[in-house]
Amino acid sequence: MSVLARGGLGPLCAAARAVIPCLWRGKYFSSGREPAETQVTPMLRHLIYKIKATGPITVAEYMKEVLTNPAKVFSQLGSVLKNCDISIHLVEVSRKLSEIQALTLTEEKIPLERNAGSPVYMKGVTKSGIPISWYRDLHDVPKGHSFYLAHEFFDVLPVHKFQKTPQGWREVFIDIDPQVSDKLRFVLAPCVTPAEVFIQRDEMRDHVEVCPEAGIIVQELSQRIALTGGAALIADYGHDGTKTDTFRGFCGHKLHDVLTAPGTADLTADVDFSYLRRMAEGQVASLGPIKQQMFLKNMGIDVRLKVLLDKSDEPARQQLLQGYDMLMNPKKMGERFNFFALLPHQRLHGRSHPMNACQSKPSVSPVAGFGELAWR
Questions:
Q1: With a cut of 50, which residues of the chain have pLDDT below it?
Q2: What is this structure's pTM?
Q3: String of b and e for 38-75 (b: at least 16 CB within 10 Å)?
Q4: Contact partners, residue 1, CB within 8 Å, separation at least 6
Q5: Which of 65, 24, 26, 28 is nearest to 48 (CA)?
Q6: What is the pLDDT of residues 121-165, one digit of tens each?
Q7: 62 in Cβ contact with 69 (< 8 Å)
Q8: Residue 22 CB: number of other CB atoms within 10 A?
Q9: CA pseudo-torsion sign 260, 263, 255, 149
Q10: Contact present, 321 and 327 (Cβ < 8 Å)
């Protein structure tokens, strides 16, 4: 089993930057709540020095710097899995987060193996006895029949932002505000930049966000699944090619201006599932995106809730109902979170299933979560 926790950021995003000695036009985009005053953080000083030295940076570079720059249920399955040849592989570029993961998942009595210079930079054993390893890049994870889980993984990968202008598409960069020396602002590139190649020719929106890193990862996942089997389940905030400006920051679970006090807030951009679908075409089949409310309903959450309520006292019942409302309410998480799956073509087309005597086509089993739950 492979779990994508955070993505390794390759050189592609950095290569897309071009320092162009032309006039940069300031452009305002909504980036969260406006702050009362500017907080000068070490990350802000680092970014200002970087911009002064090399010129405005892309939104993708900004996200990469802020999120990764260093200046700044298996226990229940133990009895089932202990005799299986199974291991867990986490892709995590943040050393701090990997330590938190290890503290939560691993057995305290078995010391962790650490090797900072190795692709497998940390190894351990889970509390249920399953080997677990940490990597910085998906490419380093061993290939084989795997089930990949990507939970809130793609929404933190760096995006390039583009605005349609009378002169064509122009990429959004980040520059120093000429009016305030320790403040950042969005600007439009004066001419075409290399990352524009990722925009679809028939794009109808006037503002788009593209994530080349997400495309590379989905293509890698697709190649692995097509070659060795398995599947991938992606759960994230996103849309099906309909939204425009989704780049935002959160600090303490509240909206935060993305250009203010960089390094103190989480940065995110909604996943464009239509882009992921295009990247997987021809190699594997895809399902979704489907809203969390429908996915969990298809997985039997209502039946599970009833079983738990029947066995719980009143305080626990209230807690269960509140949790259910948070997950299923369309105004809360029910329609904000999406599920998207990648699986071998034969899994959908039924080539691996026997044909019934009265059928002209092979019978196809439903894919859990993506079809209505039926009881027999």
A1: 6-21, 73-74, 351-363
A2: 0.80
A3: beebebbebbbeebeeeebbbbbbbbbbbbbeeeeebe
A4: 86, 87, 88, 89, 146, 147, 148, 149
A5: 65
A6: 999 998 878 899 999 999 999 999 999 999 999 999 999 999 999
A7: no
A8: 9
A9: positive
A10: no
